[in-house]
Amino acid sequence: MRLKDRVALVTGASSGIGAAVAARFAAEGAHVAVNYRPGSPRDRDAAEAAVASFATKGIAVEADVQKREMVEAMVARVVQEFGRIDIAVNNAGIEINRGFLETTDDEWNRVLGVNLYGSFAVSQAAAREMVKQGGGGRLIYMSSVHEDIPFPGYTSYCASKGAIRMMMRNLCIELAPYGITVNNIAPGAIATPINQSVLDDPVALRNAITEIPLGRFGKPEEVASVAVFLASDEASYVTGSTYYVDGGLTQQVTMY
Fold first, then answer.
1. Concatenated DSSP letters of 171-233
2. DSSP for 118-136, written as a single string
3. Of the four listed, 36, 110, 172, 190, which is most buried by Cβ atoms within 10 Å?
4. Does residue 81 lie in a domain region?
5. What SS3 state is found at 29?
6. Residue 196, in any domain of the structure
7. Domain for residue 140, yes or no?
C-alpha cells in the first residue's frame, strides 16, 4: 500500500472526484478526513457512509472552506484525531454559468471564494502543521483544463483555476525547503454529478466527446489514480507541475 499510515485531508469529498480520491487513499492505507459542506444532510450522509466503508481510520468533517475559522478548526481536528497531517487535497470547487456582462459581484466572489480562497486557506493551515511536524508533506490542487483553455460563460471559474495554477507554482518554491511538494491535477470532462446534464443528453454528449481524442468522458477513479501517485513516495521529486487527466482535450486543435 503506497500511502500506509499517512494522514490525508480531502476537501469537497462527499461526491465526484473528491469521493473517489478519498476512497482510493483509504484503499492505499491512508487515514482520511472527508470534508463536506455545511447545511447539506445529503453530503453529510455521503461523507459518513464513505468513512464507514474505509478499512483504515477516517472521519467526516464539516467545513465551509471560504471561512477561515472553519478551516482552522477542520485542520486542528485532523491533527487531534490522527496526530498529524501529511496530505491535503484541495478539491472543493464550484462553477456558475454566467456571461461576463451579467456576472454579479456575489457570483464572482462565491466562485473565487470557494475555489481560490478555500484552496489558499486550507493549504496554509495544513502547511503550517506540516512545517511544525517536519518530514515534508503533499499539497495537491484539483485544478482544471480551464487553467489553460478558455470557457466562455465561466470566466469566474477559469480565473480561479488560472490563479490556482500560479499559486501552486509559487508555493512549490516557497515550501520546498520544508520538503513539501505542491502539484496540480487538471481534469477534463469527467463523469461526475456536475456533468450529469451532459451525460444525460445524447446530443450534448456526442458533441462533447468529439472534442476529446480518446472519445469518452473520464472516470473519477482515473483522476484519483494520479492523486495517489502525487501523494506517494513515487512522486518525491515531483513538484510544481500540472498533470492533465483529460483524454487529450488540451491537445485537440479544431481546424476551421
1. HHHHSGGGTEEEEEEEE-SB-SGGGHHHHT-HHHHHHHHTT-TT-S-B-HHHHHHHHHHHHSG
2. HHHHHHHHHHHHHHHH-S-
3. 36
4. yes
5. coil
6. no
7. yes
**Separation between Cα atoms, residue 90 and residue 72, nearest integer Å:** 14
Matching residue, cell 512522486: 235
- In a domain? residue 117: yes
Q: Work out how many domains the chain is built from and give that number.
A: 1
Q: Write the pLDDT tens digit of every residue in 66-102.
A: 999 999 999 999 999 999 999 999 999 999 999 999 9
256 pLDDT higher than 90: no
Q: Which three cell numbers stand for residue 243?
A: 498533470
Pick the catalytic residue: 36, 141, 157, 243? 157
pLDDT at residue 94, as a whole number: 96
pLDDT band at 253 (very low <50, low <70, confident <90, very high): low
Query: What's the CATH code of the domain at 113?
Result: 3.40.50.720
Q: Which domain holds residue 126?
A: 7-190+219-251
Single-letter residue type at 15? S
Return d(Cα 69, Cα 30) in angstroms, integer. 26
Known catalytic residue at 157: yes
Does the pLDDT value for residue 255 go beyond 70?
no
